[in-house]
Amino acid sequence: MLYPSIDSLMTKIDSKYSLVSVAAKRARMMQENAKPQLDKYVSHKNVGKALEEIHADQLHYQLGVQQKKEAYE
Fold it and tell me: pTM score, two decimals?
């Protein structure tokens, strides 16, 4: 069985697409020697570590705000 489960992760982030995107970005950061956010990890791989951080509420995401471009002539 996988830890953390997909059901528990879906309570933290609203869609599977967003979950994959956030975990992949964090895994890339870890690959480039980013500071760990948890003291101990169950997983040895970076994607698993990123998912554990999401499950522990240490990793969040925010939707970007799109700015309006108005042309004045």
Answer: 0.80
User: Residues near 46 by Cβ (< 8 Å), separated by ≥ 6?
Assistant: 26, 27, 28, 30, 31
DSSP H or E segment with residue 22: helix 16-31
Q: How many residues does the chain have?
A: 73
CA distance 42 to 3: 8
> pLDDT at residue 2 above 90?
no
Peptide bond into 36 cis (omega under 30): no
Which residue is it, tokens 């933290």?
A: 12
Instruction: Count other C-beta atoms under 10 Å from residue 25's C-beta.
Output: 13
Among residues 65, 63, 71, 67, which one has the least CA distance to residue 14? 63
